[in-house]
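INTERNAL AUDIT FORM
Audit reference: QA-55
Scope: verify that the stored structure record matches its stored sequence.
Auditor: D.O.
Record contents follow.
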Amino acid sequence: MIVLCGFSVSNYYNKVKLALLEKGLPFTEERVMTGSKDEATLAASPLAKIPFIRTEHGTLCESQAILDYLEAVCPQPALLPTDAWQAAKVRELIVFIDLHLELVARELYGKAFFGGDISESNAARVRRQLEKNIAGFKRLAKFAPFVAGDTFTQADCAAWASLPIIAMATKIVCGEDLLSAGGVDWTAYSRLVSERPAAQRVTADRKVDQEKMAAAKG
């Protein structure tokens, strides 16, 4: 059985968890915090990033590598189109979401969520880059009704997990939800995906973890 390692406040953890639930694959969860110095964790995830999975074959890190592995071992229900071109277009969207949107917005998370800070010049630089990248993402994304078209795919696992966090971080730090300002109607999309039983499970588990973390701090 697959063991999903990480914690349910992480958007990349939830990207993988949503895929596991959508596929109906049995799995258990092991709480591992990012940045761990534990040697067993570093052997599984050399940069101490989460999520990673434990399998009968060994461990595997990086969320997209995990999703592609899940697709290979459990082709149905499919989260990638069988057509090679359409599958490539889904992966293209995932790169935009993970690399050109989320990774750029991540520079704002310290101030937005963890009591850190960012200089005005750096915040302005991030804003400019995000505005450019959001415009590019809008050209690719279909939202018809799912991000890659009429079928739920891996791209939705990435988008549903990350778009709300990007929007929240930009609103807090930049004073404006840059996704909405850029013409990306992520709220209606998020509501649609949130109706899925798998997404409801992810949301419920995330809320429980958030409440536990808040109580520990208090």
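Auditor finding: record pair retrieved intact. The mean pLDDT is 96.
Action required: none
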